[in-house]
Amino acid sequence: MNFEFSEEQNLLRDQARGFLLDNCSTRVVRDVLEGDASYDAALWKKVAEMGWTATVIPEEYGGLGLSYLELVVIAEELGRAMAPIPFSSSVYLASEAVLAWGSEEQKLAWLPRLAAGEVIGTLAVSEGQGQASATSLNATVSGGALSGTKLPVIDGDIADLVIVAVKSDGGDGASLYLVDLTQDCIERTPVRTLDPSRSQARLDFNGANAELLGIEGRGWSQVQNLYDRAAVLFAWEQVGGSDAALEMAKDYAMGRFAFGRAIASYQAIKHKLAAMYVKNTLARSNCYYGAWALETNAPDLPLAAATARVAGIQAYYFASKENIQTHGGMGYTWEFDCHFHYRRAKLLSLNIGSEGTWQDKLVTALEHNNAA
Amino acid sequence: MNFEFSEEQNLLRDQARGFLLDNCSTRVVRDVLEGDASYDAALWKKVAEMGWTATVIPEEYGGLGLSYLELVVIAEELGRAMAPIPFSSSVYLASEAVLAWGSEEQKLAWLPRLAAGEVIGTLAVSEGQGQASATSLNATVSGGALSGTKLPVIDGDIADLVIVAVKSDGGDGASLYLVDLTQDCIERTPVRTLDPSRSQARLDFNGANAELLGIEGRGWSQVQNLYDRAAVLFAWEQVGGSDAALEMAKDYAMGRFAFGRAIASYQAIKHKLAAMYVKNTLARSNCYYGAWALETNAPDLPLAAATARVAGIQAYYFASKENIQTHGGMGYTWEFDCHFHYRRAKLLSLNIGSEGTWQDKLVTALEHNNAA
Amino acid sequence: MDFNDTPQEAAFRAEAQAFLKDYYPTAEDFKGLNPIEQAQLWAKRKFDNGWSTLRWPKDYGGRDASPIEQVIFNQEEGKVSDLGDPFQIGQGMAGPTLMAWCKNKDYLERYLPKLSSGEEIWCQLFSEPAGGSDLAAMRTKAERDGDDWIINGQKIWTSGAHYSDFGILVTRSDPTVPKHKGLTYFFLDMKTPGIEIKPIKQISGTSNFNEVYFTDVRIPDSQRLGDVGQGWSVALTTLMNERAAIGGGGVSVGVKSVMQLAQKVNIDDKPAIEDKQVRAKLADWYVQEAGLKFTSYRTLTALSRGSTPGPENSIGKLVGAPKTQDMASFAMDLMEESGAIWDDELSELAGLFQGTFLAIPGLRIAGGTDEIMANIIAERVLGLPQEPRMDKGIPFNEVPTSAKG
Amino acid sequence: MDFNDTPQEAAFRAEAQAFLKDYYPTAEDFKGLNPIEQAQLWAKRKFDNGWSTLRWPKDYGGRDASPIEQVIFNQEEGKVSDLGDPFQIGQGMAGPTLMAWCKNKDYLERYLPKLSSGEEIWCQLFSEPAGGSDLAAMRTKAERDGDDWIINGQKIWTSGAHYSDFGILVTRSDPTVPKHKGLTYFFLDMKTPGIEIKPIKQISGTSNFNEVYFTDVRIPDSQRLGDVGQGWSVALTTLMNERAAIGGGGVSVGVKSVMQLAQKVNIDDKPAIEDKQVRAKLADWYVQEAGLKFTSYRTLTALSRGSTPGPENSIGKLVGAPKTQDMASFAMDLMEESGAIWDDELSELAGLFQGTFLAIPGLRIAGGTDEIMANIIAERVLGLPQEPRMDKGIPFNEVPTSAKG
């Protein structure tokens, strides 16, 4: 029984934390949040140089060939630092999709560049308000030309490569296509969002060249599998963020006095912080199992992923909103950093599907496990 | 605008509270809870003598012809005292059903005796575990003879009259029948329940004489309407109980010291009691509207009833469990009275349908109101 | 129990409706005016016709009206007007404080009618950065200098400071006595030299509040309200006049808007409104929403019988703010990935849910945090004991603070 | 990260399995014995074969095993045995306290092996009616009388008092010094004259605990552990050995049982498991259940690396107890009107949900209330400051109490 990271992995965590303390202070987040840039290109370059974008990509495709346990360590730290870079899109979604279903040719074409961070990838499923499903898709591919609108696409304005879910007449109703975003017939419109430290866009495809990724008519199951894998990684980002929010709240409460004593000595605050700790701990422990299931490709990955995801969403929403509350008036100012977590928590809970969607998936996985 | 009880109604409340303080102490509840009796017959007799069982029954049928505002005042006090008598069954369910759909003959036959408390009535819908629906009913009437099993029937072991929901081939799938319980072909078996201060039974009907109540094939709508009306009255009992539980918790917390000060001075306890107060207040205010809707037979009675019901369930469950918690170890002893509320809260939340069932009804009513 | 007005109430309501119908400014009247000017135009008309500051004495521009009449007028006014209310602090809090504590009748005649007519706007300078929930822990210094006082320090969360003409101010005139005993209360001209106003940007991106810095600001002693050291008693008068949160208004994320959305978006390829989890949440929120509404009706009834609303009104904000936060968050969940889009055109109801999501954390804090509201209910409604006070009876400058702690 | 045993752990597990297979009593062996006797039969076999009190020294009947070996044995034993554990207090708490504080080697040799073999059962006499969460506020008096002490007072929540041979007892030997300083710790024979034991009936109807009254009970000074006035330090040794709630067990209302029920009963004429509200609740509970399980795995890993479980283990009870309460309550809701029936035959799973509903309020209180658990996490895990202590440094008999307050 060993339910802990290895010494090397812990070393990587320390290294990553130190690097991000130096290179991704909240000032860096603030600059992207307030400025015109869609992401911090300098940070992205450094992160790629550190090899983080290459973590799990096999060496034959220019990657480091490390395990997902290394990747979740990095995810946690990126979440903690709220890094304003397209890491989740490019690494958890695009790279994973190409790794899983790319032909040898597609892998050779894209993985080395994704691993090197030269290319930013993303995934486009949603076509507007509400829950997407195979039957709700309107985008289509006909004769290798993709048409339709995807909204929102995270990092859609800066990505070079997008994996697009389109309607299919057979199978599960959808197929995945790989599209080079440098084509003229693709219109990209940035959209204003709740968390401007991560950019989103509307993509209009007007007969863009598209290559099938994987099997025609299996796109919806591919998306679900991709989401399961990404859910674990997103959850680690959420756990990182939750812990950072708890630490902020704790530090403030220890230093802030009211009625002659630290507000951290009032049970209303103590129990609030204890509740954060409890949610964070449950989320973290569920993430451990998720990481193991992801790394070993365990049969109950869907359950492990949904559990980590729901726990991560709940922990980060709670910690981020109650961190503001603990800060009182100051927490509600633009000047303090509390709102970064509040925005990011909400964004991460909407990417790849909401709490309700994942609660339902969790029980479906439980039913499946019980039946098996 | 006058959203308050009249002076006379407030007087009635004082009177009722005083009467119950004298005649329905927790000792009285305990005796029924611990003993063999199904209810406190002496208290029932006195309550009937006070005319409470006759409150809204018109004078021509031996009642007092008062309004539902008087009845909710009594309901609140009975709930507060956790009176171990078949008041809800006989008054909110049986009397209301006969009043609403009885033929003149049926009214004359039953209402005067119900009003006088000489006869105890009840309603039998459930046929076992889970949510009953028109299609789930197995009891039937053929040629005026009723057969089938009802389980549980509140006060089924002591009632003289029961309104039974049976399967119908037409209409909404159900019909209501009125059955005299003194017939030999009805077997009654008391069942052990969570709250022995209110008795429940299994009733087996083997061709019992039964009279149609209302219209054949309209039974399910009748049950729903009856439940809506009863929900307001049940909710007032719940509010009475919630307030009593809050008062118990408060009194104990003021007198119990830990670490040199009253536990009522700790925020963990203060905020717990404040949360009870909040839930109780919301429930009470919703009950006010429910009472008004019941009395005026307002078109949005279904919404008002569901709102009061859900609020009442939530307030009493919370207050009763956190009252035990506030008492600490003593609250968990048989000797203290805390558990009476905990049992009664659960019982009241299961009679006439659970929280989930009523949440759904509430939204259905909202949809209906919005569409209208 | 009766939802209808009494005959007197009905008559007053009809009168109010008639006035509003005849006098409420048209779009044409408002043309070219900024929101403050629009509010002033309307205030002037009310004043000129005897419909401003209804509960004030007629002498100062009021109508000597009853609390319930004020409520009825507010209800009717709310039906025709969606103007902001820059006079709330002046008319609702500063005016009553002046009437209670100012012994100089000239001042009352000078200031109150212009407050009532909207000609002059007042702000409230109470909160300080180090104070927060500990309202009386003010540090802004007042030192006597002849017939004047010299003020140095900083106030925060002052809404409308930049467009206000006057302000009410609580200062610490003696830091060597216990907290509540060393305060002194003034009113002052906001154009006095030495006052600097900086807007505070909130997380929602807007700026409704200011920081106000005082550097050697002189206030004549004649503008002191109450005795030296009696500032906390005067401040309590102001705070007790904080408008009881009856009816509410403002934020409009509610069961209705979330239901609308749930009818529009799908879950499992069916309208979300058919999803039982969505329904259960809507039911719970409706229970709270309706419960608060009917609680306010009960307060109105009590008002109409002459009683004053008590601390039990804290329940409105305590329940309403976290509920609205969760509703906004849930509504965004219903939109799934699009929930993060915050755009007038692309977002449902022009971004109402997203805007509310960012605005609502402020409501859980302003005017008393959730935690303070729960304390108020526990202590003032239920009568539970206060917690041990570490600052009781201790000179203010010896109380542990974050700075010294 | 690896879920499998290390080779050493696997070897130990195999050894334990082999022992359990060969030595665990058969139904025939247990025949005619009451639960205590059954437990004693099994304890004796473990003792005789070197598998009892694994972490104790071999000299006293132990095996000098590591914490993780203890855990592995518990896991394997749990698979074959559902016996009660009347030795938990004696072996888990009294024994380690004796080893740490008893200087008389004869006593150790007299008591420990019989504790290990299950021949003698011990109970813990700490809690008092006026104490509750304020654990150290004991009032039971100990007065010196020659070589003896005379004990008067009352203890409560003593489990197993009626079948115990010995007890560990904390008394107040000096009420004139502050709370933690006036305590003295003893062990005693439960057959000593002057001890009266009364069972406490719980709301679930069962009696797992007792009140124990002391009237002029004599204890020889030689049975004192630690110095006079050092009782709190000794008590801390006992309390630190309270078994970390690893794995849990006992109550079996969980996601699995509620799911089973939801597959059986209908909502809207469809299986309740299809209802999205039911699913959302199950998901949330599963997140907690799995989160606790995996947290305990992390603790096990730490144990296997030699660290001792810390206060973060409070999370198990803090999360688990309220969750189980709500699950039991919700399961009853799913049964609708039948939910109130509490009957072996008529109720789902023989009344498991109803029984749990009545038993669980005790779990939210025993061994530290929810509120105390949250305090422990706040103070000992997060390092937040204690609240002001009104009893600090004050003679115990001058501290405000309910009696005097």
Q: How does this structure look, described?
A:
The complex is a heterotetramer, with 2 copies of chain A (372 residues) and 2 copies of chain C (405 residues). Chain A is α+β, with helices and mostly antiparallel strands. In chain A, 54% of the residues lie in helices and 14% in strands. Chain A contains 11 helices and 10 strands. Chain A has a 4-stranded mixed sheet. In chain A, strand 2 and strand 3 form a beta hairpin. Chain A is globular. The radius of gyration of chain C is 23 Å and the shape is globular. Chain C is an alpha+beta fold. Chain C contains 12 helices and 10 strands. Chain C has a 4-stranded mixed sheet. Chain C has a 4-stranded antiparallel sheet with strand order 2-3-7-6, with no helix packed on it. In chain C, strands 9-10 form a two-stranded antiparallel sheet. In chain C, a hairpin with a 2-residue loop joins strand 9 and strand 10. At the A-C interface, strand 3, strand 9, strand 10, helix 9 and helix 10 of A face strand 9, helix 10, helix 11 and helix 12 of C.
- Strand tally of chain A is 10
Approximate helicity band of chain A: 40-55%
Beta fraction of the residues of chain C? Answer: 5-15%
Mean of the pLDDT scores of chain C? 92
Overall structural class of chain C, as computed from helix and strand content, comes to alpha+beta
Helix content of chain C: 40-55%
Q: What is the CATH topology classification name of the largest domain in chain A? A: Butyryl-CoA Dehydrogenase, subunit A, domain 3
CATH superfamily of the largest domain in chain A: Butyryl-CoA Dehydrogenase, subunit A, domain 3
Order of the strands making up the biggest sheet of chain C:
1-4-5-8
Radius of gyration of chain C: 23 Å
